[in-house]
């Protein structure tokens, strides 16, 4: 259990219960497994440096690979690739991050690649 201190509150949570994080300038929204959303005054970079088991899939998204349900390739090189999380949210994968995402999926969860 870790404690996250924001300007207005302290949150205690288990990082393994975080599905994904969405960045918005200098803030992050942490989407939890229990459908709770926590606003943090930390940046995605701050979280990505401290949580190495999370994967950066876009400049605005950091995901927990444990909750990744599907990888949907775009087909053409200019088409958008998506991943689907456990809460059925689809997140876009940045084109330049697709090789890193594929490599992470091959090493962690081979069954998701199609």
From TrEMBL:
Pfam families tied to this protein: LytTR
Coiled-coil features, chain-numbered ranges: none
Ranges where the HTH LytTR-type domain occurs: 1-107
Residue ranges crossing the lipid bilayer per the database entry: none
PROSITE patterns in the record: HTH_LYTTR
An annotated Gene Ontology molecular function: DNA binding
Domain of life: Bacteria
Full protein name: LytTR family transcriptional regulator
Species of provenance: Spirosoma telluris
């Amino acid at each position: 259990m870790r404690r996250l201190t924001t300007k207005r509150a302290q949150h205690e949570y288990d990082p393994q219960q975080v599905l994904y994080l969405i960045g918005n300038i200098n803030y992050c929204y942490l989407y939890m497994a229990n459908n709770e959303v926590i606003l943090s005054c930390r940046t995605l970079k701050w979280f990505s440096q401290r949580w190495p088991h999370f994967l950066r899939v876009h400049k605005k998204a950091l995901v927990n690979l444990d909750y990744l349900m599907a990888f949907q390739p775009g087909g053409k090189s200019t088409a958008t690739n998506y991943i689907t999380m456990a809460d059925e949210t689809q997140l876009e994968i940045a084109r330049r991050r697709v090789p890193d995402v594929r490599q992470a999926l091959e090493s962690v969860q081979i069954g998701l690649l199609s």
